[in-house]
Design a protein that fits this description.
The chain has three domains: about 40 residues, no CATH class; about 120 residues, Uridine Diphospho-n-acetylenolpyruvylglucosamine Reductase, domain 3 (2-Layer Sandwich), CATH 3.30.465; about 100 residues, 2-Layer Sandwich (Enolase-like, domain 1), CATH 3.30.390.50. About 25% of the residues lie in helices and about 25% in strands. It has eight helices and 14 strands. Helix 7 runs antiparallel to helix 8. Bound molecules: flavin-adenine dinucleotide (FAD). The site of flavin-adenine dinucleotide has 32 residues, from strand 2, helix 4 and strand 10.
Length: about 280
């Protein structure tokens, strides 16, 4: 699409270049920014020219640069990541839950998906499930950290203040060696997900279940073990922000989220039982 309101483009090379003039916004992959009119936007400031590393193994775990493409993350997770980082297996099914085709993945960045903050944000599901933290650069030259699940405050709304830029996403080492799984449903076979439930079970038996797409912001549910069926059903169903849109009604989203969560729970419980036998 021609974005006719935009009259300037700057390639950012240093952090100082991220000081935005009125009407400027930061550009990452551009897949959303170029997909619909942006009447308030008169200039793009390109983040991809900052040279941020895509993926870094740190003492604390894995750092994903905000400008790393979804395609690069998937390829690295499947071919280059340490074999014991089993949780990265969630990246592919999460990306598959994105309505967008592989053509979008090749350009869309992990940070752009998070900052767009759609309820059905594929990378939001993946990162929230692995307890990822967002490293945010603030306009005064400082930085702050916030859990990805907390950064999203509503459908298509983040807590980023004007001028703040998402620099990286940090996944703690402790969350990288877990068992993970995803269940999703969409009304149309290739349609945007109506509900996505992801889950992680850590080596110590504690578990995390995350509902996205069905609720306006990620709902993260933590348990000291794999929960019982009733406990999980009540925790999922009690969310107050299931919503209605052309992709599903709030009641349907609530109902299917409960079913998807139970499928994950039952699968993990069965595996644990078999492992113990
Ligand atoms: C056909 C199609 C299907 C889609 N399907 C889905 C879907 O199923 N689920 C879903 O969640 N999304 C979907 N999207 C939207 C999707 O979120 C984006 O296309 C993509 O993930 C955005 O990544 P990007 O790097 O291209 O971001 P851009 O388009 O470059 O930017 C997106 C927004 O984030 C801001 N931004 C980007 N990076 C940063 C940063 N580091 N710091 C601060 N702000 C930043 C930009 O200013 C802009 O407001 C779809 C888009 C298309 C075109």
């Amino acid at each position: 699409m021609d974005i006719t309101s935009v009259t300037s483009y700057r390639a950012a090379r240093t952090r100082a270049d991220l000081t935005l003039a009125p009407g400027e916004v930061v550009l990452a992959g551009g897949t959303w920014l170029m997909s619909e009119p942006q009447p308030e936007t008169t200039g793009f400031v390109d983040l991809t020219t900052l040279g941020w590393p895509d993926l870094e193994i740190t003492d604390a775990g894995l750092r994903i640069g905000a400008t790393c493409t979804i395609a690069r993350l998937l390829a690295w997770a499947e071919r280059e990541a340490p074999a014991e980082w089993t949780s990265l297996g969630l990246a592919r099914p999460a990306a598959d839950a994105l309505l967008a085709s592989f053509k979008i993945w090749n350009t869309a960045t992990v940070g752009g998906n998070v900052c767009r903050a759609f309820a059905a944000g594929a990378m939001i599901a993946f990162l929230s499930t692995l307890d990822a933290t967002a490293l945010v650069w603030t306009p005064d030259g400082g930085e702050r950290r916030i859990a990805v699940a907390e950064l999203i405050v509503d459908n298509a709304v983040t807590s980023l203040a004007p001028g703040e830029v998402l620099r990286a996403l940090d996944i703690p080492a402790a969350a990288l060696t877990s068992r993970v799984a995803l269940q999703k449903i969409a009304l149309a076979e290739l349609g945007r997900s109506g509900a996505v439930v992801t889950a992680r079970v850590d080596p110590d038996g504690s578990s995390v279940f995350v509902v996205t797409a069905a609720v306006r912001r990620p709902r993260v549910l933590r348990f000291v073990r794999i929960p019982g069926a009733g406990e999980l059903r009540d925790a999922v169903a009690s969310a107050t922000d299931f919503y209605t849109d052309p992709l599903g009604s709030a009641d349907w989203r609530r109902g299917v989220s409960v079913v998807l969560a139970e499928r994950l729970r039952a699968g993990f419980a069965r595996e644990s039982h078999e492992g113990a036998a």
